[in-house]
Amino acid sequence: MIIRNKEMAKIIKNNKVKDGIFLMSIEDNGIAKSASPGQFVHIRVSDTYYPLLRRPLSIHNTEGPVFEILYKVIGIGTKILSEKKEGEKLDAIGPLGKGFNSQLAISNSQLAIIIGGGMGVAPLYFLAKVINSKLKTQNSKLKILLGAKNKDQLIYEKFEEFGNVSLTTEDGSIEYKGLVTDLLLSTLNSQLSTLFACGPIGMLRIVKAFAIKHKIPCEMSLEENMCCGIGACLSCAVKVRTQKSEVRSQISYKYVCKDGPVFKAEEIEI
Fold this sequence. Notes:
This protein is α/β, with parallel strands linked by helices and 270 residues long. It has two domains: 2-96, Translation factors (Elongation Factor Tu (Ef-tu), domain 3, Beta Barrel), CATH 2.40.30; 104-222, Nucleotide-binding domain of ferredoxin-NADP reductase (FNR) module (Rossmann fold). The chain is 19% helix and 36% strand. The strands form three sheets. It has a seven-stranded mixed sheet, with helices on both faces. Strand 2 and strand 3 form a beta hairpin. The longest helix has 13 residues, at 201-213. It starts with a strand and ends in a 6-residue tail after the last strand.
C-alpha cells in the first residue's frame, strides 16, 4: 500500500463522459505502478472537514505514472470531486484492497467472461486490459457483457479494443433490451469459462447462482460504502460461509475494504 499525504497526487484531467459521469486522470507514480485490477483508492475530496469521510473509488486504468477513476455524481462528495480542475491536488491513499486474479482467465478456461452492470464497469476496464494482454499468446477468448438503464448511462466504447462486447439496456435504447444477466444466460456455451463481475447486488446474486450451478470459477467485486478503507471501522462487513464439513458450514464476516472488494462467488453470502 502506498500512502500519499505530504506530497499529494496531481489531477491531470477531469472530464465529463456521460450525464453525471466523470473520468479523472491523476498523476501518482506510486499508486499507478503498484495497482492491480479491482483495487481502489480512498480520496479526500475536500481540504475541510466537510465531508468528513474519504470516498472509495475503483481504479479504472493506469498508464505510466497516471491512474484513472471513473465515477458518478451521487452525493456531496462526488459533486465536489466533479468540480476539481486540472492541476489541483488530491489526498489519495492506495492502492487498497484485494483485486481480481486475472491469471484465472488463462489457467482455468478457454473463454473468459467479464460482466458489468451500471457503474460496475469502473474496475472492469483495467481488468479487461490486463486479461487481453495475457490472452494474446493463449488459445483463449475474452467476452465482455455490459448493461445499464439506458444508453446515456452505458460506458462501453473503450472496452471494444479488448474483446467481443455485447450491450444491453433496460429501456432497449442500444442493442439488446433487458438485463445484462440475460446476456450471460444466452451467451455461455459448453466451454469451461471463468466469470468476472461487478455491479448491483441483484445482478451479482444472479451471476453467483449461475456460476455455482454450472461449477464455473467466478470472482466478483462488491460495491459497498466504506469509512476507513483499511478494515479498522468494520462498517463494510459482508457475510461469508466457511465449509466446516460435508454437512456443516459456518457463517462469519469479512470486510470489503480489506478482504475484498473482490471475492470468490461461492465465498460470500449476498
